[in-house]
Amino acid sequence: MYQQQTTEEEEKFIQQQFEELLEDYKNSPHRKKVEIITKAFKFAHKAHMGTRRRSGEPYILHPLAVARIVIKEMGLGSTSICSALLHDVVEDTDYTVEDISNLFGPKIASIVDGLTKISGGVFGDKASLQAENFRKLILTMSEDIRVILIKIADRLHNMRTLSSMPPAKQHKITGETQYIYAPLAQRLGLFSIKTELEDLSFRYENPAAYADIERQIKETTPLLQKTFDEFSAPIHSELKNIGYDYTLSMRLKSPYSIWKKMQKKHIPFSEVYDLLAVRIVFTPKPNMSEKEQCWILYSILTNLYKPHPDRIRDWVNTPKANGYEALHVTVMGNGNWIEVQIRTDRMDDIAEKGLASHWKYKTGETEDSELDKWLKTIKELLEHPEPNAIDFMDTFKLNLFASEIFVFTPKGDIKTIPQGATALDFAFYLHSDIGLKCIGAKVNHKLVPLSYVLQSGDQVELLTARSQQPQSEWLNIVTTAKARTSLKSIFKKEIKSITKRGETALEEELKKMNLSISSATMPEIMNHYKFAHSDDLFYAIGRGTIDLKEISTILSKKKGDNRWMKIWKLQFGLGQKNEKETTLQKVDKNKTIQLSDNSNDFSYRIADCCQPIPGDEVIGITEEDESITIHKSQCEVAMKFKSSFGNRVRAVEWTSHKVLSFEAIIEIKGIDEVGVLKEIAKIISEEYSINISRINIETKDGIFEGRFHVYVYSTKDLNNLCMNLLKIKSVKSVSRIDSKQ
Fold first, then answer.
1. Averaged pLDDT for residues 634-655
2. Maximal CA-CA distance, the chain
């Protein structure tokens, strides 16, 4: 931010934006409190007068934009609109929370105070502060959910205007967005906002892939439109015959979800067959229930088109934990499987605007919704917080990311629990006392151990005994946040002792190799075992679940493998630096680091978790020894770093590489015919002169699947190789995969 007075033209534009905000508000179903909104705008405008954003626009346009998201895209009321307009006043000006309270009342002041406490994004500059800030966010969220809703609106506008930020800052913000804000938006039922947050993050993380998918969507849209028109014609006819007021629309899969599917299944865009979905939103008739009428529409649809027996999703009888209700069915239409979503107007409002709409329709209900229950579990987490703030953040994420399954009690009551939950998790879900005394369970009337993973539709009876004592081994069984939090609070001392024992054992083992616990050794070990924190590694060693001999093998291998996993140097821009300028701290963090073959200034290494090669979209993570580890932008490990250690993220890009080669893995599938392996090896080794380090081939029922570990200079070389391999008649698919897959 910087200071500069607004021009007359800018003032006109600001007033125009405010008038549009009022118009959005007047068109909403809320009470017409225009006066207090006008007062909040004038106060915020005066407070931010002369202040500008990095993009150069007057700062007041940001809170105005956030307020418009709050009313138009979330459907919240005047309290939230005023809080959005005032959300940066206390942080950025001399006004206090008391001033806000005196002028606008305690409720708005409380929300503004909550937003001020978590300002600057979820995270600060240091790991401990980041996690503490996150804890504050969750605490505030449990007090007034509007705080987190306005914060999500604030993040959405920041993402929409991210182009004005330097590259390193962009990576930090997109990392936070994908790791925390998008899942949180989904959990709160804000599906369209969640999709936009993911797509914007993807656009900045991987611009080339984003542009390519957008281009292919644009090219495919006319064909999809034709498919939709043909598919929907008979549905229109049937729905009109029975007199329903409805809309029937086409929904295209988002670029990020397409890319994710391509990566997960190792398929090209042309093999993503569920690009098109159809949505029916209808106004229910007053003489019968919404549920019945959804099934009437289902019956009409399945009379026209054959349904897929395994792809019916009934979220009408059992809504999702975020309040989402709909009936999904996939049918065969004109040779394509097409998903159809059936919703009433009320269900659609909840699906589009999430929590605010969920509350709007909650009139006189005595039973808690699934969303209310989820918010209660958050409050329970806060009653027994982790002593380590970063552990608390991870525990919350366990709760945040979980998909739901439905299980039944012996009496037939439906309970919603996270997918992957065990019988012991379910015991803790019902009550901590039941979990602590649980000795086993009967699932569908058969005795199962505590570690049994529950499936949707299971009927679960829990067995308890007064004499039962919780075991530390249970921490390896439970997967839910509530169970882990309850057990960790009981075994706090024991965990600390085991962790210390593991740390000592690792130190002694490393001493034998003339090494120590440092930034040079720990990332390799933690990446190998997929631990986010060193304490988790020490605990596993202390428990004996990790063999120390394995660790010496891992480090010996890395030490000896100097073909590509060696320390190279970074060049910052063009030209030479003198000795005094080669410390990382003295280099402008806003500059993009150029990765070259030369060994001039800064050491870097290729991350083992994702093995990027020149041409990949990458970021750099600064290690404690000032070396930089290069990750793919969308690598899971990198995502965690970006969301938790944003100040260590560096913007990097490849320059041309023709000296150093990098390992990549390609997966080839096809018809198992005589000589096909020889043809593949000939193209790789002879036509492209590429070294093969390892080959794994499996054949079954006339089909082969092979993984080839090859050394290439860049993604361009790799893509050319893949295109030529596809010319072999027997080869049906060629794709690059990560080493961990």
1. 75
2. 84
Residues forming the active site: 91-92
pTM tops 0.85: no
CATH topology of domain 209-360: Beta Polymerase; domain 2 (3.30.460)
The torsion angle over the Cα atoms of residues 565, 570, 576 and 578, rounded to 10 degrees, is: -90
340-343: long-range contacts (C-beta < 8 A, 24 or more apart)? 340/277, 340/278, 340/279, 340/280, 340/301, 341/251, 341/277, 341/278, 341/279, 341/280, 342/280, 342/282, 342/294, 342/297, 342/298, 342/301, 343/279, 343/280, 343/281, 343/282, 343/294
38, 88 contact by CB (below 8 A): no
Bridge pairing between strands 628-632 and 649-654: unpaired
Which numeric CATH code is attached to 370-471? 3.10.20.30
Confidence grade of residue 741 (pLDDT, cut at 50, 70, 90): low
Sheet holding 460-464, edge to edge: 446-448, 438-443, 460-464
**For residues 368-384, average pLDDT:** 57
For residue 487, what are its two tokens?
Answer: 């057990």
3-state secondary structure of 121: coil
- Tokens standing for 693? 């380090």
CA 259 – CA 19 distance, rounded (Å): 39
DSSP state of 570: E
| Spatial distance between the Cα atoms of 297 and 347, rounded to a whole number of angstroms | 15
CA–CA gap between residue 442 and residue 432 (Å, rounded): 19
- Tokens representing residue 388 in the block: 């380590």
User: Please, what is the Cα angle at 711 between 708 and 716, to 5 degrees?
Assistant: 100
Q: Radius of gyration of the chain from Cα atoms?
A: 28
* All CATH 3.30.460.10 domain ranges in the chain, comma separated: 209-360
Q: Where does the chain hold its CATH 3.30.70.260 domain(s)?
A: 662-737
Arithmetic mean of pLDDT, 167-184: 82
pLDDT band at 389 (very low <50, low <70, confident <90, very high): very low
- C-alpha 213 chain-centroid distance: 19
Position 266 confidence tier, pLDDT thresholds 50, 70, 90: confident
Number of C-alpha atoms within 13 angstroms, CB side, residue 691? 9
Place of tokens 């630096």: 577
pLDDT of residue 460: 92
Range 662-737 has CATH code 3.20.20.140: no
